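User: New here, any thoughts?
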Amino acid sequence: MSYSEDVVISKLSSVNETQEAIVNISQWIMFHRRHAAQTVKTWSKALNDAPTHRKIALVYLANEVIQQSKARKRDEFLKAFSPVIADVIDITYRQTNTEIQGKIKRVVDVWRQREIFSSSVLQDLQTRLADADQNKPKPTAGGRRLGQGMTFGMGLAPEISKLSSAFGQINSRANTFGTSLEAANKNYAFLVDADALPAPAEYASRIESVLLTLETAKTASEELIKARKDFIAQLESLTSVHKSALEAELKQQVGLQEKEAHMLSLKEDIQEMVSGPPMDSDTKSVSPPTSNLSLEDLLASTAKAAAATAMATSSSEEDIRVPDPEFVPLSDADTDSSAPHNKELDPVLAQFLSTIGGSTNTAKDLEGMSAATS
C-alpha cells in the first residue's frame, strides 16, 4: 500500500491496545521511514484529538516504532520524535485519568532506563510529568476533577457548561501552543545561530527537525485561534440571547407597574365610595375611642347615658306649665250690653259636639254657661 496522509490517518484510527494491531501498524510505518517527519506530525494530531480510551494505544504504537528503530539502529523516527515527544506526552498526560497516566509513566520509565532518547529529552519528559502531578486538580466530593464536568453541587446550566468546556479547550490549546512555540524557537535558534555548520547530511536532518517543530507550532497556533474564536462566538450568542430576554422582561415589568397603579387607583375609589371622603385634618372626632374599652365599661357607659337622658326628660316635664282654660263668650265684641242674653249656640259648634257623643242637654248646658258668663 502506497504512503499518503489519509492512509496514515486510517491506520492510526484502527489501532488498539492489542499487541497484534500495534506490531502490524508499526511495521507498516517503519517501512515508510523516509516519511518519518510527516508520520510523526500526523500521529501527534491524532493523539491530541483522540478520545481518552484510545490515547494510550497511540502511545504504545509510538513506543513500538521508537524502540524498534533504536534496536535496528535506524534514527529517522528518533530524530522525528525527539523535538515533539515531550510536548505531546505532557499534553496527553494532563488530558487523561489516573489509570492511563500510570501507563504513560511506565512507558517513559522504559525510555529512561533504556536511554531511548537523549538525556535532555528524557529530563524534559520527567520534569513535565512531575509538574503535571504537582499541579493536578484536586478531586471533588463527587470524584470528578475540577474542569472535567464539574457540577459544584447544584449543577451548571447547559450554556455555562458549554462555555466551560470551550474555555478548557482554550487553556489546553494555549499550553500546547506555548510549548511547541518554545521548542520551535529553540530548535530554530540552535540551527541558525550555530558557530559551525554540520555535515550536509546532518544539516539536512536538522533542517527537517526544525521544519517539523515549526509545523507543529503552526498547527497548535491554528487550533488555539480556532478554539478562541469558537469561545467568542458562544459568548456572543449567549449574550444576544440574554439581551433579548432582558428586553422582554423589562417590558413585562413596565406592564406590571401599570397594572399595579391601576389597582391602587381602583382601591382608593372603592374606599371613598364605602367610607365617604376623608375628613379634614382639623376635623375632630365626636365619638370617644372604644377600641380599648371592655364590654363591662361599654355597658356601664351606656347605662349612665340612659340615666342622664331620663333625668333630662323628667326635668323638662316639670318645667312645663299648662295654663287654665279661659272661656270667651261666643258673642260679637260690639254687642250691646242691654241686649238679652238668650243667644243660641253656634250651629257649627253644636253640630261638632253632637258628633263626638254630646247630647242636646250638653248643648243646652253650654248655652247656659255662655249666657251666665255674659
Remarks:
- Confidence is low (pLDDT under 50) at residues 139-154, 283-291, 331-342.
- Residues 343-374 form one domain.
